[in-house]
Amino acid sequence: MSMQLEHTQSYLLTHHGGDGQLAAQRTQDSHTRNHDESFWRFWYQWTEKILPADGHVVDLGAGIGLFVQTMAHRFPDLTTTGIECAPYMLERTVELPSNGHIVVDDLNAPSNLFQHDSIDTCIANMLIHELHQPILLFKQVKHWLKPGGRLILIDMVRQPLESYLTHKHPDATQLERDQLEESFQHFLEHNRYTPEDLSFMLQHCGFEVEILEPFKKGRAIRIAATA
Ligand SMILES: C[S@@+](CC[C@H](N)C(=O)[O-])C[C@H]1O[C@@H](n2cnc3c(N)ncnc32)[C@H](O)[C@@H]1O
């Protein structure tokens, strides 16, 4: 295993609170919430016209593979490939039909997994804030996507400390030291980019940004960008 992959895996384990089993369980528990009606409305609005029935979708940071599984079942002619590198997510990958796959790779510097101009749609749902930098991923995604193909990016965005802290803990003065330290560490890790930062990086890597749609009262953003 490469030193860089090991470094990413150990960073992720720390970011996920040091308990991989719990992180995998949380990914499972939050799946329906993260893929609610408004997610699917956005998804279909921005992919329907450019995603053929026999196209290829790539899920970046696939967790335990639930989105891959849903897409593969819902669209039997479509190929859906998830990319993931955390061992505790990979160990719990859900059962996939033959048109759904999970590939192991480090998205901080993705390998040449797909041919140039071969992918119709990529999705990064709550992934970008976990990367050390997203430029190499955006460059690679732009290379993989067909001209006119779409990247759907969904993530938390920068917000004031007040809304971050009080959303989870209405009274922070009641917290213990370890809870406070975890909250302040996550404040740094979950609040990395503004919508404008994400838009800038995507344009810098050759994408046209179609829409920035805030949700969760401005604490998160949905972006559709065209290659
Ligand atoms: C917050 S979870 C979201 C999972 C899923 N996309 C969802 O919406 O439920 C982010 C996932 O990205 C994976 N991830 C983070 N950094 C990665 C990297 N450098 N390479 C591959 N996967 C990564 C994590 O292990 C985790 O499973």
Layout of secondary structure:
Blueprint: H1 3-15, H2 20-34, H3 37-47, E1 56-60, H4 66-74, E2 79-84, H5 87-90, E3 100-104, E4 119-125, H6 135-144, E5 145-156, H7 161-168, H8 177-190, H9 195-204, E6 208-215, E7 220-226
The structure holds S-adenosylmethionine.
S-adenosylmethionine (SAM) binds near residues 31, 34 and 89.
GO molecular function, one term: methyltransferase activity
Protein name: Class I SAM-dependent methyltransferase
Pfam families: Methyltransf_23 (PF13489)
**CATH topology call:** Rossmann fold
Helix content, binned percent: 40-55%
Q: Give the name of the CATH architecture.
A: 3-Layer(aba) Sandwich
Could you tell me how far the N terminus lies from the C terminus, measured between alpha carbons in angstroms? 32 Å
Please tell me how large the radius of gyration is.
17 Å
What spatial form do the alpha-carbon principal axes imply? Answer: globular
**DSSP summary: helix tally:** 9
pLDDT under 50 segments (min length 5)?
A: none
Q: What labels would you give this structure?
A:
Rossmann fold; alpha/beta; seven-stranded mixed sheet; binds S-adenosylmethionine; 227 residues; 41% helix
